[in-house]
């Protein structure tokens, strides 16, 4: 028996260019930028001050008072995104709660800012000033647990910290749980907040641009750090049909690989990244000729964009597949990036619009690609790939397709 | 899940480093207690003289990893890499740190960790706050991400198939089994390192201490007092066919997994260990393994000395087994190792299956021989998981 098809039936997103599907889709179409001066912490000593901060997000707008008290901002964003996704899916609580629903959430640093607050209090005012109630809020473990509590789910709860590939890891694993028959519904997504330590770290690694992220441009200066969260409602075909759900997209296969090379530098031959893209294509039962559009990892650093261009040439050969990087709009949302960008992929499948890479001015011969420059473009959008090629050699590439386009998922090991 | 072969394991633990030292120490089991005159490298005992915090003793990573490249690695990573290296050698996949069976493209890792590198995060927060954010060490910064330990293991051990970090508190290392099983069945790898790591740090000790978990008078009531601890353990889990084809010695099989979650009733708190969730997780694991509760020889429980959690776990075990099953509590000897704890319990189960006496017994008599072990992990937040291991079928 072939495994179940996995559908996307709900989208929730917290981003610097809009909260919720509608605002986010509109912003993608016009290429709105969410990059602005960081206000949530003092940047004066860091040497950089622009980020994709989600200024319109206030936990109290989305959470109960008790929820807001027991979680940090990273969890709050994930829960808000999950609420939006559940609403978008029009799924009844009786179809959502219980043992057949799982929650998978990816992140890079999770609630590290909770620890930052504790550390800063401890350093400045001593141990006695640390609030006990604050302590248990730290830990990536809690990210899916807050969601499970809010929706009464009883299946797998798991956090997958996978650096900047975490969104694709979570969506891929969520789809696996359904294909393996361990779940009917999965809330899968990722979350990340802008925080002082991470921001300082990227500034220190000299990987951060001043004001603009310009992926694939000759004069690109580096990445802009962003934040946000996205959660997708994933559902088995049978469950979606049973409750008459609207299907927005199908989750195809995904590719995972590990450079096992260096903690921050990509592999010089990009073998891991090429492998991850090829796997995503093969595991979706298609060929590279079937891919209509690629959402780039496209961080805007010299090394990443050049390496990703190599990967594109290797995978697609002479064919110039349109590619664009949402990081030019919202910055690099780290662990949340590929989850937010997965929502963008569904936008492309639904509308046939490729979102633009803004700030693209001077082509780079090292990045000889068909970049969707500055304005959105209409095009064929049956099958798209979502790249994330992260630090630590964590590569994850996911495939999304319009419902009805992909062949049945390939059989796994016989049970 | 399909039965998976376990072909080796390696660990860095309070009971010793490596399988041999670990199994040897199980022959004369002792509860973990602070000894007179002990020294810790991570915690200043002059500040906290009776700290119920424990370390892997005499941990010298350079003995296993050489001197080069260790400077920027944190303790968490070193504990994990050494355990992984020992596991790969034990399974016969590597010799002198080179693959001699399978290949680096076909071996991956799923590594559980609950709290990340408190060492790296706290150090950099300290530098940023007390000195200047521009002075934070860029070589330490990558250690602050929650998956850094598993990332470093893949780099040091050359594991290129896939690399998955999981966080599910104390249940993570059992969840790693489910995750690895899924990836094996999708043919993403032929063998997976499965386990977890957690490192002692002053911030970890202080947090548990401030929350009253280490000195609560009720804690002795059931099994003893909680001892916060550290270490890393990895099992090598393979598709059976491939393990047999390469002539590997199969120590035991992992044959079932179950998990569940139950929201704490009190909306104002985060903490709520749930006997209901654990009961369901156990039943799910037994049903996945097609094992009757009566066929379980001993439970490798997660009883730790934390009374609220222990109460909940007893309720779950009573509900499934009545009084009929012998219960061991490996955490009383190894300490509470959080994200690594499930891996230590599975390592204990493997040792018992190979003839070491189950310990520390907290209920019933240790069976003379062990064929089937249920491993339980109860989380602090309503999460719970269970795994079933069984002695290998005779060929």
Quick tags:
heterodimer, A: 415 residues, alpha/beta, Peroxisomal Thiolase, Chain A, domain 1, eleven-stranded mixed sheet, two-stranded antiparallel ribbon, 15 strands, 33% helix, B: 395 residues, twelve-stranded mixed sheet, 12 helices, 14 strands, globular
CATH classification, class level of the largest domain in chain A: Alpha Beta
Mind telling me which CATH architecture of the largest domain in chain B this is? Answer: 3-Layer(aba) Sandwich
Outline of chain A: globular
Secondary-structure element string of chain A:
EEHEEHHHEHHEHEHEHEHEHEHHEEEE
Question: Count of helices of chain A?
Answer: 13
N- and C-termini, Cα separation of chain A: 10 Å
Show unreliable segments of chain B: none
What name goes with the CATH superfamily of the largest domain in chain A? Thiolase/Chalcone synthase
SS strand fraction of chain A: 15-25%
The chain-level structural class of chain B is alpha/beta
Describe the structure.
- The complex is a heterodimer of chains A (415) and B (395).
- With 415 residues, chain A is α/β, with parallel strands linked by helices.
- Chain A has two domains: 237 residues, 3-Layer(aba) Sandwich (Peroxisomal Thiolase, Chain A, domain 1), CATH 3.40.47; 149 residues, Thiolase/Chalcone synthase (Peroxisomal Thiolase, Chain A, domain 1, 3-Layer(aba) Sandwich).
- Chain A is built from 13 helices and 15 strands.
- In chain A, the strands form three sheets. In chain A, strands 1, 2, 5, 6, 7, 8, 9, 10, 11, 14 and 15 form an eleven-stranded mixed beta sheet that branches. A two-stranded antiparallel sheet of chain A has the order 3-4.
- Chain A is globular, with a radius of gyration of 20 Å.
- Chain B has 395 residues and is an alpha/beta fold.
- Chain B has two domains: 242 residues, Peroxisomal Thiolase, Chain A, domain 1, CATH 3.40.47.10; 137 residues, Thiolase/Chalcone synthase (Peroxisomal Thiolase, Chain A, domain 1, 3-Layer(aba) Sandwich), CATH 3.40.47.10.
- In chain B, strands 1, 2, 5, 6, 7, 8, 9, 10, 11, 12, 13 and 14 form a twelve-stranded mixed beta sheet that branches. In chain B, strands 3-4 form a two-stranded antiparallel ribbon.
- In chain B, strand 10, helix 10 and strand 11 form a beta-alpha-beta unit.
- In chain B, helix 3 packs across helix 5.
- The longest helix of chain B has 16 residues.
- The radius of gyration of chain B is 20 Å and the shape is globular.
- The model of chain B has no long low-confidence stretch (mean pLDDT 94).
- At the A-B interface, helix 2, helix 5, helix 6, strand 6 and helix 7 of A face helix 4, helix 5, strand 6, helix 6 and helix 7 of B.
């Amino acid at each position: 028996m072939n495994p179940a098809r996995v559908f996307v039936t709900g989208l929730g997103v917290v981003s610097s260019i809009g909260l919720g599907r509608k605002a986010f889709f509109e912003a993608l179409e016009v290429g709105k930028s969410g990059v602005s001066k960081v206000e949530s912490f003092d940047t004066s000593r860091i040497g950089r001050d622009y980020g994709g901060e989600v200024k319109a997000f206030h936990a109290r707008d989305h959470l109960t008072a008790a929820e807001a008290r027991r979680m940090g901002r990273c969890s709050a964003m994930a829960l808000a995104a999950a609420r939006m996704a559940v609403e978008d899916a029009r799924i009844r609580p009786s179809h959502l709660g219980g043992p057949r629903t799982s929650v998978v959430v990816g992140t890079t640093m999770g609630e590290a800012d909770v620890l930052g607050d504790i550390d800063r209090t401890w350093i400045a005012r001593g141990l006695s000033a640390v609030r006990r109630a604050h302590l248990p809020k730290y830990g990536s473990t809690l990210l899916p647990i807050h969601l499970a509590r809010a929706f009464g789910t009883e299946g797998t709860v798991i956090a997958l910290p996978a650096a900047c590939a975490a969104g694709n890891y979570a969506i891929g694993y969520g789809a696996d749980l359904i294909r393996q028959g361990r779940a009917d519904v999965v809330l899968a997504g990722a979350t990340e907040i802008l925080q002082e330590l991470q921001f300082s770290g990227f500034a220190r690694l000299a990987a951060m641009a001043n004001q603009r992220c310009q992926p694939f441009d000759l004069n690109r200066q580096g990445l802009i750090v962003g934040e946000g969260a996205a959660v997708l409602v994933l559902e088995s075909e049978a469950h979606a049909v049973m409750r008459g759900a609207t299907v927005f997209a199908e989750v195809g296969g995904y590719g995972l690989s590990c450079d096992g090379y260096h903690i921050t530098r990509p592999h010089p031959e990009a073998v891991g990244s090429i492998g991850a893209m090829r796997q995503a294509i093969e595991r979706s039962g298609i060929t590279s000729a079937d891919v209509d559009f690629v959402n780039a990892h496209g961080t805007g650093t010299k090394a990443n964009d050049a390496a990703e261009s190599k990967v594109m040439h290797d995978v697609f050969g002479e064919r110039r597949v349109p590619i664009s990087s949402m990081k030019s709009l919202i910055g690099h949302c780290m662990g949340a990036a590929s989850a937010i960008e997965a929502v963008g992929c569904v936008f492309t499948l639904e509308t046939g619009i490729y979102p633009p890479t803004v700030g693209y001015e001077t082509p780079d011969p090292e990045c000889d690609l068909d970049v969707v420059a500055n304005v959105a473009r209409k095009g064929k959008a049956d099958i798209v790939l979502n790249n994330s090629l992260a630090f630590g050699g964590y590569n994850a590439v996911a495939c999304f397709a319009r419902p009805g386009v992909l062949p049945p998922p390939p059989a796994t090991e016989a049970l | 899940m399909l039965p998976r072969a376990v072909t080796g394991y390696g660990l860095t633990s309070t009971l010793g480093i490596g399988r041999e030292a670990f199994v040897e120490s199980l022959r004369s089991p002792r509860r973990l207690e602070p000894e007179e005159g002990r020294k810790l490298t991570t915690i200043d005992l002059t500040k906290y003289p009776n700290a119920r915090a424990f370390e892997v003793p005499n941990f010298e990573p350079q003995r296993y990893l050489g001197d080069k490249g260790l400077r920027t690695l944190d303790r968490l990573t070193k504990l994990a890499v050494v355990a992984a290296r020992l596991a790969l050698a034990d399974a016969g996949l590597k010799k002198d740190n080179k693959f001699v069976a399978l290949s680096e493209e076909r071996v991956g890792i799923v590594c559980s960790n609950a709290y990340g590198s408190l060492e790296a995060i706290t150090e950099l927060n300290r530098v940023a706050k007390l000195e200047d954010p521009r002075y934070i060490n860029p070589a330490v910064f990558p250690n602050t991400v929650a998956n850094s330990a598993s990332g470093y293991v893949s780099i040091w051990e050359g594991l290129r198939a896939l690399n998955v970090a999981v966080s599910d508190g104390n249940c993570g290392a059992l969840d790693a089994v489910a995750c690895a099983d899924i990836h094996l069945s999708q043919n993403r790898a032929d063998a997976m390192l499965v386990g977890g790591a957690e490192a002692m740090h002053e911030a970890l000790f202080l947090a548990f201490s401030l929350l009253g978990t280490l000195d609560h008078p009720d804690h002795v009531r059931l099994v003893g007092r909680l001892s916060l601890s550290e270490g890393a353990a990895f099992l090598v889990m393979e598709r059976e066919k491939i393990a047999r084809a390469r002539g590997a010695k199969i120590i035991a099989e992992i044959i079932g997994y179950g998990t569940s979650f139950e929201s704490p009733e009190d909306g104002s708190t985060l903490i709520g260990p749930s006997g209901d969730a654990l009961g369901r997780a156990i039943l799910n694991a037994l049903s996945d393994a097609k094992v009757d509760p009566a066929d379980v020889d001993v439970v490798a429980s997660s009883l730790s000395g934390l009374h609220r959690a222990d109460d909940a776990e007893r309720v779950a075990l009573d509900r499934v087994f009545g009084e009929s099953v012998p219960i061991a509590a490996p955490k009383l000897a190894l300490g509470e190792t959080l994200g690594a704890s499930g891996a230590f319990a599975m390592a204990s189960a493997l040792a018992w299956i190979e003839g070491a006496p189950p310990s520390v017994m907290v209920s019933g008599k240790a069976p003379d021989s062990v064929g089937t072990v249920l491993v339980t992990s109860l989380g602090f937040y309503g999460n719970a998981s269970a795994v079933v291991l069984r002695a290998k079928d005779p060929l």
